[in-house]
Prior knowledge:
The chain is mainly alpha-helical. It has helices at residues 11-27, 37-60, 63-67, 69-95, 113-116, 120-145, 150-178.
Amino acid sequence: xxxxxxxxxxxxxxxxRAISARMHGALxxxxxxxxxxxxxxxxxALTAEILCIWRYTMMSVSLAGLKQPxxxxxxxxxxxxxxxxxxxxxxxxxxxxxTPDFSPHGLETRFGEFGTRADLAGLVEQNLAAERxxxxxxxxxxxxxxxxxPVTALMLTNIxxxxxxHATDMQDLLSIETGGHG
Length: 182
């Protein structure tokens, strides 16, 4: 088990993994239920981005974010990036003939956990674990789209670059919060 995952229950990571499982099923064309697997994949990515917007926005205005404006600003910047990703993915779903669904059905995330956790380092660890999972999702999606849909593959590659930056930012914040050196 990864050190980052061992801290506390991480509903955020569970949700990202549930999305990952749906995407894997779509890649295998097992769970698309007659739908276009490409649209199922993109809808899963849209759902992941919505979760990230919620999470990072809430963290930007959480007690820790308000006490330390630089932390709140970092999380708001992350939320803004995720919103741009969400819009790009929704637009691509439309371009491919689908209808983006902005209702993240069947997710377990319990945002109430925020109110009970004052441990910023623990929350950042959870974010880092989820970002790593999302990075893996985007890599698999790029591999899927690259051979037959270079437009979607390029969009996903650009998103992947920003998600990798988010993971680095989380690692840097964690290093600061835990007194590490980087």
